[in-house]
Design goal:
By secondary structure, the chain is mainly beta. It has one helix at about 5-10, and strands at about 15-20, 35-40, 50-55, 60-70, 75-80, 85-90, 95-100, 105, 130. Strands 1, 2, 3, 4, 5, 6, 7, 8 and 9 form a nine-stranded mixed β-sheet that branches. β5 and β6 (about 85-90) form a beta hairpin. The two termini are about 15 Å apart.
Amino acid sequence: MGLLDSMATRVAGGATVEFRPSGTSMVPLIRSRQLVSVAPVDPAKLEIGDIVLARVAGTTYLHLVSALDRTRGRVQISNNRGRVNGWTAAARVYGICVAVDGEQRASAAHKVRAERPTAVGHRLPAPDRTTAD
């Protein structure tokens, strides 16, 4: 299991995670090894241009929403260089990038999925901080 798969599993479980993805497919929005924060997303609130953590044809990407087909409940995922990864079910869009290197992405804040309630007196865990080697 790779870094993005691991992060997708955590986000799907309701966690907000921080990690440093590598690669150049999202430059200049995200540069290699910049710290990103990804929170669970409400797929009904997605818009073209959102940066999401999604699985397409067995591969997990931190890429852009490039098209929406709401009638079929699917989302097209692409990188920032024009390459289309493909269509995926909205349920396979696990999270939305809410910050890059500590700079909040204002358009993402209202798209975060509501937290599941916790028992009285219990605190939600802090975001996971993971770096890729």
